[in-house]
């Protein structure tokens, strides 16, 4: 099976202070992996390395994807562009005409639950949750085959989160999208991921399939009390 993302023996230091040491992680194509671990263990640093925004001091980061989508906790939208303009901007460089870019951007905003009324608003006129939805639409508009999400849904309420997850599951089923998402929410991880990657400070401590975790838990619950 191909691996759209693989990190081998990655070391990384922020300002000379080691943060990741000999970190290994691989994502099989079409899987959804939840990256979990204590605050400060290096999850966001791993995502930045995976995205190519940071360069490892040692080891190797290999991305085998045609198009990468990234969503951060901070949506970082262009303040001088509308929601539609922000999503359309991401489509420049794909060789599409202006009308096609606008149509794709509109459709993607619609898919994340932002209709024509919201599409024309500037980031300052949108709530934090709406800005996060614009950021997701921007990442998905390029039709990525690898999506990295760093606490991307943290400002969203439960019903909106559920709708966006439904959209991601549909995209995965249709396109084989591979997703790595950082979350502190165990329920979100168990409900939406196929695999868990659990970090200890600086490294991946364990990767396991969610099904294996659930059956281990169930057999422990059903074990006779001695
Ligand atoms: N730009 C930076 N400059 C210096 N140190 C940094 C920088 N970014 C992160 N660090 C440090 O690197 C370590 C790992 O940070 P990182 O943000 O990757 O952890 P995290 O697991 O994502 O944390 P959280 O769950 O709190 O978001 C922390 O000690 C943090 O203080």
Question: Which key features would you list for this structure?
Answer:
226 residues, alpha/beta, Rossmann fold, 2 domains, 6-stranded mixed beta sheet, 3-stranded antiparallel beta sheet, 8 helices, 9 strands, globular, binds adenosine-5'-triphosphate
Reconstruct the topology from this structure.
Layout: E1 5-14, E2 17-27, E3 32-36, H1 43-51, E4 58-63, E5 68-71, H2 83-90, H3 98-111, H4 116-119, H5 128-141, E6 146-150, H6 158-175, E7 178-182, H7 186-192, E8 195-200, E9 203-209, H8 210-222
Helix pairs in contact: 2-3, 2-5, 3-5
Residues 14-15, 19, 37, 39-45 line the site of adenosine-5'-triphosphate.
Please characterize this protein's 3D structure:
- InterPro entries: AAA+_ATPase (IPR003593), ABC_SmlMolc_Importer (IPR050093), ABC_transporter-like_ATP-bd (IPR003439), ABC_transporter-like_CS (IPR017871), P-loop_NTPase (IPR027417).
- The chain is an alpha/beta fold.
- It folds into 2 domains: 149 residues, P-loop containing nucleotide triphosphate hydrolases (Rossmann fold, 3-Layer(aba) Sandwich), CATH 3.40.50; 70 residues, no CATH class.
- 38% of the residues lie in helices and 26% in strands.
- Strands 5-6-7-3-8-9 form a 6-stranded mixed beta sheet, with helices on both faces.
- Strand 6, helix 6 and strand 7 form a beta-alpha-beta unit.
- It is globular.
- The model has no long low-confidence stretch (mean pLDDT 93).
- The site of adenosine-5'-triphosphate has 11 residues, from helix 1.
- Adenosine-5'-triphosphate binds next to helix 1.
């Amino acid at each position: 099976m191909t691996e759209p993302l693989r990190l081998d023996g990655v070391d990384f230091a922020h300002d000379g202070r080691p943060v990741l040491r000999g970190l290994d992680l691989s994502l099989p194509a079409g899987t959804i992996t939840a990256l979990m671990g204590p605050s400060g263990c290096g999850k966001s640093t791993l995502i930045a390395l995976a995205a190519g925004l940071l360069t490892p001091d040692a080891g190797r980061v290999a991305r085998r994807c045609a198009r990468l989508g990234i969503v951060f906790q901070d949506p970082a939208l262009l303040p001088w562009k509308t929601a539609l303009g922000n999503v359309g901007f991401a489509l420049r460089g794909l060789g599409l005409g202006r009308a096609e870019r606008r149509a794709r951007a509109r459709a993607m905003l619609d898919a994340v639950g932002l209709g024509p009324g919201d599409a024309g608003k500037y980031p300052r006129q949108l709530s934090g949750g709406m800005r996060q939805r614009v950021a997701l639409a921007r990442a998905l508009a390029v039709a990525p085959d690898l999506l990295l999400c760093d606490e991307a849904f943290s400002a969203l309420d439960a019903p909106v989160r559920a709708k966006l997850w439904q959209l991601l599951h549909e995209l995965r089923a249709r396109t084989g999208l591979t997703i790595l998402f950082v979350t502190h929410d165990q329920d979100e991880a168990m409900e939406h991921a196929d695999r868990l990657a659990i970090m200890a400070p600086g490294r991946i401590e364990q990767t396991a399939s969610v099904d294996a975790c659930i059956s281990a838990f169930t057999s422990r619950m059903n074990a006779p009390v001695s």
